Amino acid sequence: MADSLEDIDRRTHLHPFTSIAEHAAGGPLVMREGRGIRLKDVRGREYLDAMAGLWCVNVGYGREELVAAIAAQARQLAYYHSFFSMTTEPAVRLADRLLRLSPWPMSRVFFGLSGSDANDTQFKLVWLYQGLRGKPAKRKIIARHRGYHGVTVASASASGLPLVHARMGLPIPGFVHVRAPHAYRECEPGIDEAQFASQLAAELDETIRREGPDTVGAFIAEPVMGAGGVLVPPKAYFPAVQEVLRRHDVLFIADEVICGFGRLGRTFGGEVFGIEPDLVTLAKGLTSGYVPLSACLISPRVWAEIEEQAPDIGVFGHGFTYSAHPLAAAAALANLDVLERDRLFERARRIGAHLQERLRGELADKPWVGEVRGLGMIAAVELVADPSTRRPFDPALRVGVRVFRRMLADGIIVRALGDSIALCPPYVIEVSEVDEIVGALARAIDGIGAEIRAAQVSAAG
Ligand SMILES: Cc1ncc(COP(=O)(O)O)c(C=O)c1O
Question: Which domains are present in the chain?
């Protein structure tokens, strides 16, 4: 008998963010098709994708408009590059459209392929800019613990997750991490959210002073932190942070890879928090994941310096073979058309409010539920051994993974970020489907909780 797809995969494919040993024993799950928020695997099993792939398929799967745009572009001109002043029509139109879409005045767009490479580009732009203004030592990048900015050498160094540093000798020098605005874990009793925000801003200030303001080039942050646990900052956090950055002449890179394109109910997440970025990173929702594409938006402040010294700079020595790929640009334009025509940002706001309310209503008072958090169409439920003391579960119990697996067996895909269960559905999800997910999550938490209690009782007896 011929090898199954699963057999071949286990023999051949090194999977990203996958346990090598567990994959060899139990992987993979091979998906075959998708429509709206539903996926079907090669064995015909159906799933409701409550994670929009990897926080990206905002318009849902199988959108004919995107498929047609990609196919038409492929037929006409599947590839041409953007080096040496070359370009293609979709790339021209997309750059213009992104600048018009941006709530902040922006001067130029640089295209890449992933959130990771876009953040690397941002760091290079910071170094270029600071050098051009006669401050070449202003190179350090300040990021947050629990932040996720990607996995290339520089973006992984900015990420604040031990998993992406371990065994790789990362972060490289020049990347400094400060505390995340994670009130549930980091805010001391008796301190309110506004005071917590001031504390974090003061710590940032101390960090910049300790490192030397003349050596700090930029600060990078996600509006709502995604992979670090879906952490929503206190309202006062970003205004206080920005005040510190301005004082020390440090640029702000807004990593909008998850929050951009409506996830929080506005065009960009930074709008919700009053962020005024110098550089903006976009990916994922730019094409709803149909074709890889990222974009760096460059503010007038940064661009003016580059433009002024353009004759001296000569060639901008950076770019990818696939920068501004016409298939990706065509997909992005069609994606933006769908988002606008179907008013999906508004829909994300409306259904997101229902998602947040339902999760809190159904789950917040359950045993094992420490915190329900989120904003708009992104949320997480943190499971703990004891909600009264916030004591986490023993990691060896792998509570998050068990809930994920139980949900998967129920036909619903969520994501375990440690013991926080994340939800980030496509915007086309219906209210009844939100209720279905929340109900299944409640049952999964009850089920795993009962298993743990039974194991404790039998160990004690
Ligand atoms: C906020 C953020 N930035 C950057 C990235 C990296 O993007 P990519 O996986 O496309 O390199 C991600 C991916 O999840 C992300 O969530």
Answer: 36-59+343-460 (3.90.1150.10), 65-341 (3.40.640.10)
